[in-house]
Amino acid sequence: MKKVLSLLFLFFFVINADANFSIKIKVVDESTKEAIDFADVFLFENDKLIQHKLLDAGNLVFHGVSKGVYTLRIQLIGFDIYTHNNIVVDTKDLDLGLFGLKQLEHGLAAVEVVANKKQVVYKLDKRIIDAGASLLTGTAVDILENTPSIRVDAEGGLSFRGSSGFKVYIDGKPSIFGGSQALEQIPSSQIDNIEIITTPSARYDTDGDVGIINIVTKKNVSKGINGLFNINGSSFGSRGIDFLISHEKGDKQWYIGGNASQLSRKSHFEQLKTTIINDTSTTSNAQGKRESINYAYSFKTGLRMKKAKNFYEFEAEVGYQGRKRDGDLAYEESRSSQGNLFDHGVFTSRDKYDLHETYGQITNGYKHQFDEHGHFLSANAYVKYGGNALEYFKSDLFDADNKRHQGHQAWEAEYRWTVRANIDYVLPYREGGKFETGYQYFSYLEDGDYKMEYWDPSSQSFYWRDDIYNTFYFQRGINSVYTVFTEGYKALDFQLGLRGEHTHQVLRSSKTWANRVKNRFEIFPSAHVGLSLGDQSKFIAAFSRRTTRPELFFMEPYITFRDYYSAEIGNPDIRPEYINSFELLYKTNIRENTYSASLFHRSRKDKIERLRVPYEAGITLDSMANVGRDYSTGVEISASLKMARFWNMNINGSVYHYKLKNDFNIGGKNENSSNYDLSWANYFDLNKKSRLQLDGNFVGPSVTTQGKTNAFYYFNLAWRQQLIQRKLQATLSFRNVFGTARYVSKINTSNLISETRIKPQTPLISLSLSYTFNNFNSRNAQQKESNDIFEGTNH
C-alpha cells in the first residue's frame, strides 16, 4: 500500500512539476531607459499562442510554463516588434533579464493582430480603461460609458455605483470643474487611458466618496516632429477641433497643443409642480425646449528633459471655458385657497444661464531616479489662477402680449487660486517589496460677490436688491502625509497604507452669522490584497476610508435662482461625508474571454443630499443637507467575450441594494430600493480598416429621501473607417437611435408634489475625423461623443 501511495505521489509530483516553471522579463524603452507599460507580450510554442499578457510597469512573469522551446514576441504601436527565439524551459525558472524596445523612426508598425487588446487592465488598487475601446466620439464621459463600475445616469451625468461623489484629475492634477462637467471638457481624442480608482490607497487624495477618475492624456514619445489633429461636429451644432504637436531630439522634447470645442445638448422639458404654503396651493405647468452648451478653448505648451538620472518637466496652459443654457418655456400657473381658484395666468418663461472662467496654470515636475528598479524621489508643483470668473443668470416671465411680467437677473463674480505641491519617495527594498512615503499641500481660495436685480412692473425697469447683495471669501488648506507598504510573496500581494490630513477652512460672508472657521485632523487607512490563482485568475480584496468635503456652493448663505421658479441657498453648517468602502474582485481569463465579478459594500455617514421645499407661491427652494446614513451592497459582473473572429462583445451589469436612513425631517423618509443597470456593447470588425459598434444601455430606477427617478434605456450605433495607411480615421455615430431615452423624476412630500419629464432631441448624429502625421506614438487616436443627452434635470 505504501508503494502504491508513493507511486501516486510521484506521479502527481511529476505532472505538476512539468507545468511549474516561470519566465520573467523586464522591458524598457531602448532610448530613454524608462519602463514600458501595456505592451502586448506573446508566448508561442511551435507557432501556437500559449499565453498573452500585458506589461505592468515594464515587468512580466509567465507562470505555469511546461518544458519546451518557446518564442517570445513583444509589440507596441510606435516601436519595432521584438522577437526572442529558442527559449528553452527545462529544469528551472528563467529570468531573461532586460529587453529594450526600439522606437520606429518613420510610420507605424504593420502589426499582425494575434489577440484583442484588453479594454480593462486590473491592477492592485485601480483599473485602467483603454480610451480606444469604443467608437462613439466626443468626450471622456463616453469612454467610460460601457466600463465596469461606471454608469451614465438618467440626468446625463456620470456615477460610480449610484453615486456622483467622485473626483476628477487630469494627469494627476485636480480638474477646474467637478464631476461630469469636468469630464465633458476633455476631448476623447486627446485621452490615452483613464484610471478608475474605486477604493484608492493612502497615496491618493481622500476626497470623493466613491473614488477617483484620473484622465491620462496622450504624450508622444517618438523621435522627430510628430502630431495629431482632430475635428468633429454633430447634428445638434456641437463642434470641436484639437491638435497636439511634439518634437523630440536627444534628451529633450517640447510640445504644443490646443482645443476649441462646443458641446450642445437639446431636450424637451416638462414640469408639473404643486406647492402648498399656509392655505394657498399653487400649481404650475412648464414645458418647452431647453438647450445648453459646454464650451472650452485652451492652448498649452511644455518641455520635458532628461539629464543623467534626473528628469524635468514644465507645462503652461491658458484657456477659457464654461457652460451656458437657454430655455424658452410655456408657463401656466393657478392659485387656489381651500379649493377656490383666485388667480390664473399664462406666460412665457425665458431663462439664460452662463458660467465661465479664464484661467492659467503652470506645472513643474522633477524626478531623480536612483536606479532602474523603481527607486526614485519626485517633486511636483501646480498653480492655477481663475480670473474673470462669472456666473450669470437671467429669468423672465412674459405675458400673452410679450410684455415682461416678472423677472430678475444676477451676477456672481469671483477669482480663484488653486495650489498643489507634492514630494514623494519610493524605495523598492526587495523584489515584490516597496516602501512609499510623501507629503502634499493643497489650497483652494475663492473670493467674490453676488448681486441681483428685480423687475418692477410699475416702473418697467430693473432695480437692485440691496438685501440680497453679498460678498464671500472661502479658503481651504489641507496638509497631508502618507505611508504605503507593498509586499509580495509568490502568488500573494498586499498593500497597507495610512494617510493623515489636517484641514483648515475659512468661510466669510457679508452675512456675518454665516462666518465659519474649522480645523480638523483625520486618519484615512487603506488595505489591498491580491492573490493570483495560476496565470489566468486573480482575487483582489480592498478597503478604503474616504471623505466628501462640501463644495463652496453647498455653503453659500444667500439665495440664488436657476430660473424664475427654482431658487437655491447654501448651508454653512453642512458637514463632510465619511465613507467606508469594501470590495472583493475576482477576475479570470478563459481562452480569449475575460470575466470579472465584484462584491462591494459602501457605508456613508452624514450623507449630503439636495432637499427641495416650497419658498414662495409657485417657487421652490433647494438646499444641501446632511440627511443621515446610507448603505450600498451589491455585485457587479463584467465579461469581455470573443464571439467570433470578427465579433467581440462586452457586457457589464450590476445589482445592488440601497438603504437610506433619514435623520432630516423635511418631508423625507427612510428608503430601501433594489437598483440594477446593464450595458451591452458589440464590436464587429468588417475588415482590417473598418469597424462597427452597437451598444445598448439600461439604467435602473433610483430613490432619494424625497422621491424617485424612473428607469430608462437607449441604443447607440457607430462606424469607424481608417484611410491613408491608417493615418486618417473617420467615425460616424448615432446616439439614442430609437429615441427611447426618457428622464422622469418625482418628488412627493407633504407640501410639495413635483414631476419632471425630459426627452432629448433625436437623432443625434456625429462625425469625427482624426489624422496623425509622421510617427505620433499613441496607443489610442480615437474620439467619442458625450452621453449627457438630458438637459434641465436640475429643475
Task: Provide a short characterization of the protein structure.
The chain has 795 residues and is mainly beta. 4% of the residues lie in helices and 67% in strands. The protein has four helices and 44 strands.
What does this structure look like?
- There is one protein chain.
- The chain is mostly beta strands and 795 residues long.
- Helix content is 4%, strand content 67%.
- It is built from four helices and 44 strands.
- Strand 26 and strand 27 form a beta hairpin.
- The longest helix is centred in the first third of the chain and has 17 residues, at 2-18.
- The protein is globular and about 95 Å long.
Strand residues, percent? over 45%
Q: Structural class, from helix and strand content?
A: mainly beta
Average pLDDT, all residues: 82
**Count of distinct strands:** 44
Topology readout:
Elements: H1 2-18, E1 21-29, E2 40-45, E3 48-54, E4 59-65, E5 68-75, E6 82-89, E7 94-101, E8 120-122, E9 127-130, H2 140-143, E10 150-152, E11 158-160, E12 167-170, E13 173-174, H3 179-184, E14 191-197, E15 212-217, E16 224-234, E17 239-249, E18 252-277, E19 280-307, E20 310-337, E21 340-369, E22 376-398, E23 404-430, E24 433-456, E25 461-464, E26 470-489, E27 492-509, E28 516-533, E29 537-548, H4 552-555, E30 559-563, E31 566-569, E32 577-590, E33 593-616, E34 619-644, E35 647-662, E36 671-687, E37 690-699, E38 702-703, E39 707-709, E40 712-723, E41 728-735, E42 743-748, E43 752-760, E44 764-773
Parallel strand pairs: 1-7, 12-15, 31-34
Antiparallel strand pairs: 1-4, 2-3, 2-5, 5-6, 8-9, 9-14, 10-11, 12-13, 14-15, 16-17, 16-44, 17-18, 18-19, 18-43, 19-20, 20-21, 21-22, 22-23, 23-24, 24-25, 24-26, 26-27, 27-28, 28-29, 29-32, 30-31, 32-33, 33-34, 34-35, 35-36, 36-37, 37-40, 38-39, 39-42, 40-41, 41-44, 42-43
